[in-house]
From TrEMBL:
Name of protein: Fructose-1,6-bisphosphatase
PANTHER family: FRUCTOSE-1,6-BISPHOSPHATASE 1 CLASS 2-RELATED (PTHR30447:SF0), FRUCTOSE-1,6-BISPHOSPHATASE CLASS 2 (PTHR30447)
SUPFAM superfamilies: Carbohydrate phosphatase
Keyword Ion transport: no
Binding site for Mn(2+) 1: D44, E68
Cofactor (UniProt): Mn(2+)
Organism the protein comes from: Chelatococcus reniformis
Biological process according to GO: fructose 1,6-bisphosphate metabolic process; gluconeogenesis; glycerol metabolic process
GO CC, alphabetical: cytosol
Reactions listed under catalytic activity: beta-D-fructose 1,6-bisphosphate + H2O = beta-D-fructose 6-phosphate + phosphate
Amino acid sequence: MTEITVAAGQVIERILSLELVRVTERAAVAAARLRGHGNEKAADQAAVDAMRRELNRLPIDGTVVIGEGERDEAPMLYIGERVGNRKGPKVDIAVDPLEGTTLCAKDMPGSIAVMAMAEGGTLLAAPDVYMEKIAIGPGYPAGVVHLDAKPEDNINALAKAKGVSTNEITALVLDRPRHADLIAAIRRTGAAVRLISDGDVAGVIFTSMPEQTGIDIYLGIGAAPEGVLAAGALRCIGGQMQGRLILDTEETRKRAAAMGVSDPNRLYEMKDLARGDVVVAATGVTDGALLKGVKFGKEVIETETIVYRSVTGTVRKIEAEHRDHSKFHME
Ligand code: VTB
Ligand code: MG
Ligand code: MG
C-alpha cells in the first residue's frame, strides 16, 4: 500500500488547499443571491454566515487573524475567533467573505469571496486601517519599484525593466479623492491609469496577469486587511508587493499597537505580510476580469474559483456545477 506523506514543514496539506474552494464557493453563492439589491449589509452578512459555517467543517485548528473586525464589533469571524473542527493543523485564517460589498449591491463587476489559510502565526494580523500599497507581477528584477519612490520614478523604472515606453504602462488605482495627486503624477509620465471603485484584492492580483488584465502596477491606498489577502496570492505567483499601515491618528496607532504592531512606520515586504506556507482561494460573485460571477441556472448553479498555493506556485481555476442546491441552505 502506498502511503501519502506530507513533506516536513508542510503544514497545509495539499488536500486542505482544495477544501478552501468549498468555503469561498458557499460565500459567493450566498452573496450572489443578493446581487443588485442595493443592500450591502445583507449581502455581506449572507457571505459571512455561509463562510463561517463552511469553515467550521474543515479539519483545522484555525484562528481568524484577518476578519470582520474586532470581537466587540463583529459577532462572526471576528479577529481571534477559533474556526474549524480543531482536528487538524494550527493555521491562520484571513477572510473577506464579500470583498467589494458595494460592487455586489450594485451588481457591478469585480466582487469576490476570498480567504487565505496559512501556517499558524505567519499572516500579518493587520488592524482595519488603511495601507499604502505598491504591487507588480512576476518577471521583474527585485526592487525595481519601491513604495517610497516617487510614482514617476516607479513608472519609469517599470517601463525600462519591461522594455517598453511609459505610455505602454497601465497603473491600477482606487478611484478616491485621496489619489488625485498620485493619478496626476502617473499620467504625467505618459502612463495610463485604470480606476476601480472597489476591490483592490483583485486589483493587486491583476498585476500578476498583465496579458489578461492589461495592468502592470497597482498603486495607492486601500484597506490593510485586503493588503494581506492580496500579498498571500501574489506570493504564490512571485510578484512583488510592499505596504505600510497608515497610522495617522492616536486611535489607529492604539488599535495597531493592540494587535502587536510595534513600529508604526514599518515597511512591510510581501513576505512580512504573508510569511509562511499559504493558500488563497477566491470565488467570483459578480463577473470580473479575474473570475466569472455565480450563475443561477435552472438545474445547476455555476461558480468559478481560483486557488493559489505558495509551496508549489500552482494556480488552479475551478469551474463547478452545483446540482444539489440544498447544500447552500444547510445549517
Ligand atoms: C479598498 C477596496 C475595498 O475598501 O481596500 C477600500 O479594495 C479602501 O477603503 O473593496 P475606502 O473605500 O474607504 O477607500 C473597499 O472598497 C471595501 O472593503
Ligand atoms: Mg468584508
Ligand atoms: Mg473588503
